Amino acid sequence: MTAEEFDAIAATLVQSAMEDDQDQIWFHFEGRIPQTTLTCIQGLRQRYTHANPKPKLRVSVEIEKPRREGLQDLVYEADVVFYSRGWAEAEGHPSAMACLESQVKVIADADSTRPEKYDDEYERTLVCTWGDKGAAALRYTCQQGILFGFMHPWSLQQKLAFAIELAGWKVVQVGFAGLGRRMRSTFQNCKG
Question: PANTHER family from the xrefs (predicted)?
């Protein structure tokens, strides 16, 4: 399916969901042709997230095939990501949870370069299947500062304290200048 074909179908589905007064509409993608899939997801986000807050748009994506170029880009656009064991092992992860913890760091790094993410609170769920060993899941609410906390081996309490303090400083100023300097002592305290 091309992005144009998808757009036509998606428009019909979203219109139907709006007419039925649905609270959310969910689109699930498999990462078979990552560039086309990315175009489809970004098109959905541009057309329906800002213009029509209801129904709420939710996007999930499967990341399965190892070394398929462009899969990581899909992760940054999804609300829910399903990783396969094969993909995780090819990336060097010894367990499902190791994969998810690593991906939180990768996503946090990417989000830090996308300023539009800082102004929105959003939730992301990551799931990694591990065959006969089951699966692992990780859900987090992303907000200013909390992603930075996930990049460090802090307790959940330390992560939240850091995020709250950072958000507090950010609220009282325009822009990001000087936030690192203000947060230095808190960072040192969290490190122990």
Answer: KETOHEXOKINASE, PHOSPHOTRANSFERASE SYSTEM TRANSPORT PROTEIN
